[in-house]
Amino acid sequence: MSKRTWVEFFGLISVIGSLLFVGIEISQNTQAVRGATHQAVFDQVSEYYLFIASEERLADLAAMALTDEIKRNELSKGDRLRLDMLFMTGIRRVENIYMQHSNGILDDDAFKMIGMDSYRSDYVVDIWNSWKGGFDSDFVSFFEKLRDGNNL
User: Fold this and answer.
1) By C-alpha distance, which of 100, 102, 123, 115 is closest to 38?
2) pTM (2 decimals)?
3) Which of 24, 48, 74, 90 is surrounded by the most beta carbons within 10 Å?
4) In this predicted model, what pLDDT tens digit does every residue of 96-142 receive, in sequence order?
């Protein structure tokens, strides 16, 4: 083999080695982003639950709404808005997970962390029907399927 052939061979090996290194780094970075995103979702859920638990009036209202003990039209405007915003915050959290999933950052398991039972009460369905016009139509379809227990 000539000197030039050896140089080209080592150059080729160097390029292949560099590509393998970059591929491994990208894979590790992707795993780190997914882990951070899962942690962020968990943190959102925790903050959401803690906020409800720390506000006695809101906790009482939410408990009655989730067990269908009250209807939206039975509440004062202020209490209705409180509950609407509370549950819409939860739905926006689901929308965030949906967007992360659509971008390939989260997998289907992320939807298991949501706790969809709370979105099935008559009260929350009423809120959803009143506010869903502010969401992307693809998300509306997705959310309703997920809420109703249909597979992803």
Assistant:
1) 100
2) 0.72
3) 90
4) 889 988 988 888 888 877 778 889 999 999 999 999 999 999 999 99
